[in-house]
Amino acid sequence: TSSGHQYAAQRASANFSPLLKQNEMLGGLEQWFFLRDIDANREERLKEVGLKLVKLRDKIVERSRLILHLATNSELLPTCEKQLIPFIDSFPKGEVSVTNSKEVEILKRSGAVVELFGIPSTVSFNAMVCRSSAPSDASQVHQSLLATIITTGKLWDAVRSVGGAYGVTCSIDPLERLCAFTSYRDPRVTGTLDDFEKVLREVIEEGIEQDQLDAAIIATISSELRPISPQSRAFLAFRRALYHISDEYRSERRKTVLETTVEDLKEGASQILASLNTFKGVAIIGGEKVLKGVEG
After folding, report:
1. Which of 100, 143, 216, 235 has its CA 20 to 30 A from that of 70?
2. What is the DSSP letter of 128?
3. DSSP one-letter code for 110
4. Residue 123 CB contacts under 8 Å (≥ 6 apart), including other chains
5. What's the DSSP call for residue 131?
6. Which residues contact 212 (CB under 8 A, 6 or more apart)?
């Protein structure tokens, strides 16, 4: 139950692109449904699954799909490269993989997709997801700061303090262009979903205190500038290389963070609310009693 809200968010996010749908199928609720339907008492069924896994392994684990990121001192680089050759050669040499450089297809939809999933529980795990702005837009930075502020502010007060949920979050996924609201071990469903949108309307009407914005800016910049271990630095560099995140892009986003105003946050809230009204994915995982109280 510690990650129930993450499963809900992944399911709700699957409505926004074929890739996200595939990710949910491989590591979300859909995967649990698949595993549940496997009859472990039938030896023939287990052999069938085993053969499929072997074929999958042979397709994936081969040299042309291998990407290595080597981080070391420059004087040690030639030696390390030589030591890596036997490791690389240990992988079977398959056909050269064709890299698809096209952008991931973005599904354009309207309305809402609401899914309910029953579990033996007296509480629920709720997620509501919509499109955020594009990573190249300054407005996505504003939306990200807004998400940080309301998670520990207005959203926390409404869903945690008043509503009784154990936890609540709002977050922006920059690369997938998603805004996700989630609640954890929540005794409510409809009330919480309403609060997600109500908080946005409050920000639009009342704004955010300047000291809250200042604290969010400091926290955001500090998280990027904090010292990290060589291992973490190498992994971070590898991730940035895979996702084509340049230093120029990061520098521009940092500049936008520092220049964000309260009016920018109000506009960001308006954009997220408009996005929710255009299309949203909602996934609710909860007990029978909680799900019976869901309206519409």
Report:
1. 100
2. E
3. -
4. 166, 185, 186, 187, 286, 287, 290
5. E
6. 149, 153
**CA 288, CA 168: separation in Å to the nearest integer?**
21
Whole-structure pTM value: 0.87
Residue 221 near residue 258, CB atoms below 8 Å: yes
End-to-end CA distance of the chain: 26
Return the structure tokens found at 169.
């979050």
Considering only CA atoms, which of 131, 130, 147 is closest in space to residue 260? Answer: 147
- Judge whether 159 and 195 are in contact, CB under 8 Å: yes
Partners of 124 in beta bridges: 186, 286
Q: What ranges in 66-133 are assigned the alpha helix state H?
A: 77-89
Both tokens of residue 113? 């997709």
- Is the per-residue pLDDT at 96 higher than 90? no
The pLDDT-based confidence of 296 (bands split at 50, 70, 90) is low
What per-residue confidence (pLDDT) applies to 31?
92
Burial of 105 (0-12, 13-18, 19+ CB in 10 A): exposed
Establish how many alpha carbons lie within 13 A of residue 94's alpha carbon, considering only the half-sphere containing its beta carbon. Answer: 14
pLDDT at 105: 58
Do 96 and 64 meet the contact criterion of CB atoms below 8 Å apart?
yes
Asked if 29 contacts 11 with a C-beta cutoff of 8 angstroms, the reply is yes
Amino acid found at 95 = E
DSSP, collapsed to helix, strand or coil, labels residue 113 as strand
Residue 101 has pLDDT above 50, yes or no: no
Average pLDDT over residues 107-134: 91
For the chain, the maximum distance between any two Cα atoms, rounded to a whole number of angstroms, is 65
* Spatial separation of the C-alpha atoms in residues 143 and 162, rounded to whole Å: 24
Q: Are 128 and 147 in contact (CB under 8 A)?
A: no
